[in-house]
Amino acid sequence: MWNAQELYKIFTQRLEALKQFLELGKQPSFDDPFRREFEDLLKEYMLYGGFPAIVKEKQTKEDLLKNLVLMYIEKDALGSFGIREIEKFRLLTKYLALSTGSIMEASSACSDVGIDFRTFNSYISILANTYIVRVISPYHTNRLNEIKKAKKLYFYDLGFRNAVLANFTQVENRTDLGAMLENFVLNELASQGYEVKYWRTTGKAEVDFVIQTALGVVPIEVKSSGMPERGFLSFIERYKPKIAVVFTKGFMGLKQIQGTKVAFFPHYFV
Question: The organism sits in which domain of life (predicted)?
Fold first, then answer.
């Protein structure tokens, strides 16, 4: 029977193994004795997030999160920032939650919510500065066919995002599982001090995340299952990184792809 202290010890060992791979290319151990326990903990975390008051509460997590969103919009947005059109601020927050992980289309957001571009930028700035959303930039090297300006957006806390959407459907039944997993991995990489970007070409080849380590540029793909797609392979062919990472389900191990050492980890390894 496992206990919390034992799981935490294994968790920290896995974090260190990931760091050793990212920074040194050291082959990690793929021993996975508590896979089911970690998968269950990850599902709960993606559903309810990591706010301490929410984590400690066993019965009313959903109500607490909904109240947290309500307090943020009605107290912080209205009181601290003087936002007059609270309903439009709420609608934009929901719009962003629905488009988590997608390239921000300001014109579409403005049209759907009914705000102008200046207001859109102001609201995004407030959400970012109050640690509700993360905005990440594209990785590029001045190549003509690489996107250079468009941003992508994620949430600092997945429980908050789910409360904004009023959606606490179990993770395995979610239609937005891919976006949730991306959001989780991004948050964990950022918490480890990495500046996280994404990569996309005008031909829509894309890599979820790109970071810089002591080994150079590292592409990171997040899959709900299966293998990476053409964008990941295109990045490897173009930049020839020493290592790459795929967070997925159903396969753990190392593969050589076009001379790049690619590690396949479960999502909870990060």
Answer: Archaea
Degrees (nearest 5) of the Cα angle 18, 19, 20? Answer: 90
Chain mean position to CA 107: 24
Q: φ, ψ for residue 214 (rounded to 5)?
A: -60, -20
| Residue carrying structure tokens 């949730």 | 180
Query: Which residues, other chains included, contact 17 with Cβ-Cβ below 8 Å and sequence gap of 6+?
Result: 26, 28, 29, 269
Question: 12, exposed or middle or buried, with CB in 10 Å at 0-12, 13-18, 19+?
Answer: exposed
Q: Are 252 and 32 in contact (CB under 8 A)?
A: yes
Rounded Cα distance between 103 and 149, Å, is 10
Report the C-alpha gap between 50 and 165 in whole angstroms.
17
pLDDT in tens, 132-162: 999 999 999 977 788 888 999 999 999 999 9
Whether 1 has a pLDDT exceeding 80, the answer reads no
Q: Which residues in 38-52 are b (16+ Cβ under 10 Å) and which e?
A: beeebeebbbbbebe
